[in-house]
Amino acid sequence: MNRITLLMAVASVAFIATFAPLRLLAQDATPAPTPSDWMVYDDQAMHFHAPAGFVPVGQRQISLDNLKDDPTVVAGWIYPDKNHPRRLLIQQEFFDGDVNGFQAEYEGQMRNVFDSPLFKDKQHTSLRNGMPAIFEVMTTGSGFSVQKFYLLMWADGQRGVVVVLQTQIDDIDAPTARQLMSDATAVRYPSDQQ
After folding, report:
1. pTM of the model as a whole
2. Could you tell me which residues are beta bridge partners of residue 164?
3. Which terminus of the chain, N or C, has less C-beta within 10 A?
4. What is the pLDDT of residues 7-28, one digit of tens each?
């Protein structure tokens, strides 16, 4: 097994283990056709294209009936550079309010998962197609284990969706993170779809 393959395997396991509390359960998945492009995540109400340099870990679609009230990972990518480890993922959860309500709920959920997270730089923004969104930064950990999470979130009428970019504390800045997460569009979740 060559070094890059081993590094990717270890990073994948670490990626999944890091977010185990966020309900990465296979039985919740809805069978979906294999994506023609693993760098793209598409469903009835959103589109996201991961940036160049990232490697796909996996993805799945979860029907609205099976979506829980807690963040569930539906897609993930890693940046296989030992000097700049990064994880990119999409989380979804059942939520029928607006983006402001979802942002407050998501912060509360993260406070229950991580030890003393610090949220800052909350900005109202929009996705590429104009969908209202919020971008903010979460920092957690201490000493050499401090991690930074860049969060881009929106609510589509039936779900709260978050694109999360996890990095080391001094790896990238907020404008760079926003650029890496910029290829996202969303619409209201179709009311006739479950």
Report:
1. 0.82
2. 89, 151
3. N
4. 344 444 444 444 443 333 334 4
